[in-house]
Automatic annotation (TrEMBL):
SMART domains: AAA
Keyword entries, A-Z: ATP-binding, DNA-binding, Nucleotide-binding, Transcription, Transcription regulation
Species assigned in the record: Giesbergeria sinuosa
Alphabetized Pfam families for the sequence: AAA_lid_14, GAF, HTH_8, Sigma54_activat
The protein's name: Sigma-54-dependent Fis family transcriptional regulator
Keyword ATP-binding: yes
Stretches assigned to the Sigma-54 factor interaction domain: 344-556
Top-level division of the source organism's lineage: Bacteria
């Protein structure tokens, strides 16, 4: 990223000084994207010369979860990153893959050229979002959704001036930002072709993602010359059975004069003058390419790849999921849970709608996510929508999307809607029992017709997803009372699975072991046996949400030399209930070295304050982190005098 020719570092520093002094970049001096990025960095309150502490990278467990979530992207990027690294091996550089938030997920390179501090900054789990590190290739490519080079003093923070970086966005088949590919190195080793190299590699990853994610659609390779077919310059489009364009790479969008937002709502006939029947009658085995005429009258050569049936989509294991699938990884031995997982796997293979029932906090959403990750659709998105958390008037546009300018306050470019964002993947509708009746009718129509019609636009769009719904309400009773449509109930309920409440589970010891392993505690972390016995008798009204949170808080309270979670690490409300249980049983009372109530109260206040601060005062998010309901959090705040 720069206004050619490269500006000298002293001039750049003066310009940045002027920005800090006056709040504005000097006019006409900088490349427009660099000026915008500096302005964003300035507005984020970053100090170019400041030495504010670096944010810690994600803890290993969170990083691993994120890598599992992005395993499709990582899997398709790895061979290309290795190829790229072979090209830059001798130039003191690294090849980096970041997720769509700028967090580094995978790096290749030898770190000799970096000091220890710099190594930490470029390690997996570190965020290079502009809001945290100012102008830099990864964060700025993310903000601009465009390929960018940021060299030396163009970085907003002086301490990053030793770097030269080039980054390009990687887009999904439906045009959403999937991640960022970057080459970073010592600024003395800058090469003018690096950005071109990274951009080409990003396109190769996009093509690989599209070809793998759209295997169950007809895929066409397109190019104005037959020799261009099969090269990096070719266009790729994916067509649904009904002839809707459901995926495309950037060259294809350019050839057809389309924007990515048109995907899913544009039919074959709107783009091509040639009849669709000719495509279906022309498989790859027919020999030479097919000649197509676009609606604008241009000729394109095409190679046709027929869809694979849903069942034949190969299930390749995710990098972090080696021997067991994502459901099996969460299986800690409870037979009811295992039975539910077995059924979910079978429904996934045939995309039969699944209804997950269970009390609040039993892990319905995590179960649904694991079922998606264990399904043939796992390379496509998992889109979770909480019907209870959205205001009624927003659910409609959120789910079904809207055309540009459909209503006051709508985004200018319109929105595809969450159902379309899940194309090829899984939609998880949480708290489906809270969906208003009027929207139940619309949802039913979508499920019957497998098409969505965005608000303010008459064209229906074909959609393909596996539907998982969840509720903690007795949905059958809601049907009998007329609050839930019976036809929708039968439509979403291909099969019901009931997840057991925590107090009903027979695998508490193994489950505890699993939860502790996820917490990143000290080596040898374990529970006092008397406490474990008492925990097994407690009825856990908040289920796994409450239990995992109690364990998390307990681990945080351990002194550096401690490995054993004991009575003193329990929160006061749980402790009181445990003691009541203990008193009412004949087993010998434990020797709890209980902290005084006042200090437990203080700890609870501190935990609440920290959670609120971490989420900028967002009560719902803080409650989620603490593992308590919003109402409980409000009650605690009132008790603490807020
Ligand atoms: N297997 C698990 N391992 C670790 N933590 C878990 C597990 N299952 C659930 N949890 C914890 O419980 C919390 C709640 O899980 P989840 O949101 O899936 O429950 P839910 O049943 O969908 O809740 P609700 O009905 O309130 O939406 C998670 O955020 C997580 O902290």
């Amino acid at each position: 990223m720069r206004a050619p020719p490269l500006l000298p570092a002293t001039l750049l520093r003066q310009a940045r000084h002027q920005l800090v002094e006056s709040g504005c970049c000097p006019p006409d001096m900088l490349d427009a994207r660099l000026a915008r990025s500096w302005q964003r960095s300035f507005s984020a309150g970053l100090q170019p010369l400041g030495c504010a502490a670096e944010l810690d990278p994600l803890p290993p467990r969170t990083l691993q979860q994120m890598q599992v979530q992005n395993h499709g992207l990582i899997r398709h990027s790895l061979p290309i990153m290795e190829y790229l690294f072979a090209q830059v091996r001798q130039s003191h550089s690294m090849v980096i893959l970041a997720d769509s938030q700028g967090v580094l997920m995978h790096t290749l390179g030898d770190l000799d050229f970096l000091s220890k501090v710099e190594r930490v900054a470029l390690a997996c789990g570190a965020s290079w979002h502009e809001s945290q590190r100012g102008t830099n290739a990864i964060g700025t490519a993310l903000a601009e959704v465009d390929g960018i080079e940021v060299h030396g003093a163009e970085h907003y923070l002086e301490r990053n001036g030793f770097l030269t970086c080039a980054a390009a966005p990687i887009l999904s088949a439906t045009g959403e930002l999937a991640g960022i590919l970057d080459i970073s190195g010592d600024q003395r080793s800058r090469h003018p072709h690096t950005l071109g190299l990274v951009s080409t590699a990003a396109r190769m990853i996009e093509n690989s993602l599209l070809l793998s994610g759209c295997q169950h659609h007809t895929v066409l390779q397109l190019h104005p010359q037959p020799e261009g077919l099969g090269t990096i310059a070719q266009g790729l489009i994916a067509l649904s059975d009904a002839g809707w364009l459901v995926g495309a790479n950037r060259p294809a969008l350019q050839l057809l004069g389309l924007r990515a937002t048109a995907l899913g709502s544009t039919s074959w006939g709107q783009c091509f003058a040639t009849a669709l029947q000719q495509v279906h009658g022309h498989p790859r085995t027919a020999g030479g390419p097919l000649l197509l005429r676009t609606g604008a009258g241009h000729l394109l050569y095409a190679q046709v790849q027929a869809p694979r049936s849903n069942l034949s989509v190969p299930v390749t294991p995710a990098p972090a999921v080696t021997t067991a699938d994502a459901l099996a990884q969460r299986d800690t031995g409870d037979l009811r849970w295992r039975n539910a997982a077995d059924k979910a796997r079978r429904m996934a293979a045939k995309s039969i709608p699944l209804l997950v029932l269970g009390e609040s906090g039993v892990g319905k959403e995590l179960f649904a996510k694991a079922a998606h990750e264990a399904s043939p659709r796992r390379d496509a998105p998992f889109v979770a929508i909480n019907c209870a958390a959205l205001p009624e008037h927003l659910i409609e546009s959120e789910l079904f999307g809207y055309a540009p300018g459909a209503f006051t306050g709508a985004r200018k470019q319109g929105s595809p809607g969450r159902l379309r964002q899940a194309q090829g993947g899984t939609v998880f509708l949480d708290e489906i029992g809270d969906m208003p009746l009027s929207l139940q009718t619309r949802l039913l129509r979508v499920l019957q017709e497998r098409q969505v019609t965005p608000l303010g636009c008459g064209d229906p769009v074909a959609v393909d997803f596996w539907l998982i719904c969840a509720t903690h309400q007795p949905l059958r009773a809601a049907v009998e009372q007329g609050r839930f449509r019976s036809d929708l109930y039968y439509r979403i309920n291909g099969l019901t699975v009931q997840l057991p409440a925590l107090r009903e589970r027979t695998d508490l010891h193994a489950l505890t072991h699993h939860l502790l392993a996820e917490l990143d505690g000290p080596p040898g972390l374990h529970l006092d046996p008397t406490l474990m016995q008492a925990l097994a008798r407690y009825d856990w009204p908040g289920n796994l949400r409450q239990y995992s949170n109690v364990l998390r808080t307990a681990v945080a309270l351990l002194e550096p030399h401690e490995q054993c979670i004991s009575w003193s690490h329990m929160p006061d409300d749980v402790l009181q209930s445990l003691q009541v249980l203990q008193d009412s049983t004949p087993t010998p009372p434990p020797p709890p070295s209980v902290l005084p109530a006042a200090s437990l109260q203080t700890l609870s206040q501190q935990a609440i304050a920290q959670a609120l601060q971490a989420h900028q005062g967002n009560v719902s998010a803080a409650a989620r982190q603490l593992g308590i309901s919003r109402q409980t959090l409000y009650r605690r705040l009132r008790e603490h005098g807020h």
